[in-house]
């Protein structure tokens, strides 16, 4: 239980801070996410888990954030249990292998000239499924949760948690930068990759907050 708490909390909160940083720096994307939530759910009730499959753009925002700011940028170190070949390189047994997901996620050969830009639309289109499907499917080019047998077992939970939290934050509040210039994207140090300086922003409640406040005062 302790492992799950340790592995699950920092990774998710760091990602959420990067998502919000990207949104306050990209009003166009924030507006599109707000419009999606308003058209699918509206302002009369709070987002629920069952709404998530109907909010593709929200997921593209999360995928694009995990691409640019994977919260475990070097994944976890692995040890080869026997001699093997990886990407054409011979690895003797007992070699430590570190995968630089951050660099893969920003490689212009994979992502094009705008690899460093925040563009959730690059995840549009159905994810390819099955062996041998297009290796251009962007969902198959990111590995924020690792891959294979030791991949993150909390990935499905994390994706639902991020979707629901971000959905509620966008549905319930207007978000704006508190400075004229863009919020700094500088990364800090750590096993998980935090922002160097914590995000500050201006938020204003949207109509649903008044409704939720009235409902909660009526039940107390
Ligand atoms: C945005 C959220 C998260 C990210 C980006 C993330 C990422 C990762 C990565 C990259 C690994 C290492 C994979 C590898 O060795 O190649 C990992 C391992 C792990 N994660 Fe997550 N994780 C997240 C959330 C969670 C949550 C919510 C839980 C549990 C509730 C969790 C539990 C674990 C555990 C137990 C491991 C170790 C698995 C093993 O060694 O076999 N993670 N995670």
UniProtKB/TrEMBL annotation:
This is Cytochrome p450. Its cofactor is heme. Belongs to the cytochrome P450 family. GO terms for molecular function: heme binding; iron ion binding; monooxygenase activity; oxidoreductase activity, acting on paired donors, with incorporation or reduction of molecular oxygen. Its main location: membrane. It comes from Trapa natans (Water chestnut). The keyword Oxidoreductase applies. GO terms for cellular component: membrane. The keyword Heme applies. It comes from the Eukaryota. It is found in: Membrane.
């Amino acid at each position: 239980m302790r492992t799950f708490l340790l592995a699950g909390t920092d990774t998710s909160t760091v990602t959420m801070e990067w998502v919000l940083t990207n949104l306050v720096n990209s009003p166009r994307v924030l507006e599109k996410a707000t419009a999606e939530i308003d058209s699918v759910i509206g302002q009369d009730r709070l987002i629920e888990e069952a709404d998530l499959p109907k909010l593709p753009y929200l997921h593209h925002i999360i995928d694009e954030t995990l691409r640019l700011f994977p919260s475990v940028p070097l994944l976890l170190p692995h040890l080869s249990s026997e001699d093997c070949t990886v990407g054409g390189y011979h690895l003797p047994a007992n070699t430590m292998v570190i995968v630089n997901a951050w660099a893969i996620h920003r490689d212009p050969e994979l992502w094009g000239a705008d690899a460093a830009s925040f563009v959730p639309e690059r995840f549009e289109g159905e994810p390819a499924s099955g062996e041998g499907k297009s290796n251009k499917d962007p969902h198959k080019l990111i590995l924020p949760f690792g891959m294979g047998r030791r991949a993150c077992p909390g990935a499905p939970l994390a994706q639902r948690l991020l979707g629901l939290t971000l959905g509620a934050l966008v549905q319930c509040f207007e978000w704006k930068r508190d400075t004229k210039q863009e919020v700094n994207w500088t990364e800090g140090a750590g096993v998980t990759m935090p922002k160097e300086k914590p995000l500050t922003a201006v938020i204003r409640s949207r109509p649903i907050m008044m409704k939720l406040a009235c409902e909660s005062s009526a039940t107390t």
